Amino acid sequence: MECAARSRRRLAGVALAVCLVAVATGGIRAAANGVDRRVELIQINGSINTAVASFIEDSLADAVDRDARALVIELDTPGGLLSSAQRIVKDLLGAQVPVIVYVAPSGASAASAGVFVTMAANVAAMAPGTTIGAAHPVELGGGGLTGAVGQKIENFTASFAQSIARERGRNQKWVEDAVRQSAAIGERQALEQHVVDIVARDLNDLLTQASGREVKVNGEPRVLELTGAMVYRHKMTLAQKLLDTLADPNVVYLLLSAGLLGLYFEFAHPGVLFPGVAGAICLLLALASFEVLPINLSGLLLLLLGAGLLIAEAFLPGYGVAGIGGLVAFVLGSLFLIDSSETNLRVSRGLILGTALALVAIFLGLGALIARRRAGPVMTGSEGLIGEIGEVRHAIAPGVAGRVFIHGENWRAISDDELKAGEQVRVETVKGMEIKVRRLA
Fold first, then answer.
1. Which of 22, 70, 94, 380 is the most exposed place for a label (fewest CB within 10 A)?
2. Which CATH number fits domain 17-236: 3.90.226.10, 3.30.230.10, 3.40.190.10, 3.30.470.20?
């Protein structure tokens, strides 16, 4: 019995040792396969603005705090604010963690300000079917910059782009062409011309290709080890999402138009409340977007003047002068609302045309309705009593006044007929506080 017990204890010890070895081996394999490696992933799908810059700053700080091996920025942008792009570039060049900018998915682009963000990454990558380029600054009307001021802005932007490419060891000549000539290329050309480092099918392919590369992080060399790493996705906070939405010029334009229209209805029909409250909220949101977008003051004033003239046309007999002037001012203000010298974003021309026509139709329709009511018979006051039907309360005889109940009031009444109490009468004339009536046939 004692021998049997010792044998069981030995077997249990052997089994425990085998389990410990298996656990240790599994841990070593897990470490070798990258399970302990962490990669942070964020997605930028829209314009480059202050909300995006704040989001990237927060993500860089989180990646450092969580000891991530890299931060991957999946980028798809039509461009945005140059000031926000400069802020992002500064953060990426001084980041304490390797940064990979991945232009994806297929069909995405890194245009205008997106070029600078992509070039500032430790590793720049693109998915098949993507494009990069067209970083030329534009003027207020959307065309190319001209004159001495335009030349200065173009030279500054080109120098800024070249300094980023030089720091990251990328093609400086192409970056200059992207700024000065709006050059744009696909992923294969970008790889061949050393604009980007990797063309990857998906995120796993990107991490595999990036592993083993040596990059400089804050001036010190570091080898990337990302194969099999765990990817953690992060999203914007609610405040950042709201600011990012308000960075769309089309959204701001709609909010501004809706706010003006709502306040107009509230002033035209006091006490309805809902149009006024909704209009005030829309205007406040539009004003909040002024912190995100570069608003041209002249364009804003023209837009407000146009809306005011359109409203005036609905109430004043201006023979269309105020309406035509308001339409012209409104359209011009809409075109110049966004200062395009600081961003390539602008309000959609189709949206401007549609909004202008809709506002003209609304104001002219209201004006026609008001004019029709003014031309119709008077429905209020003493004149509004003429033709109305009332009831005799005190008998009336020629030369003897009586009382008629009409519109909830007792009026002193005279008549050429002899009328008894209870008879129905119609008002013929009103003179002061006395009415003249006749028997209702």
1. 380
2. 3.90.226.10
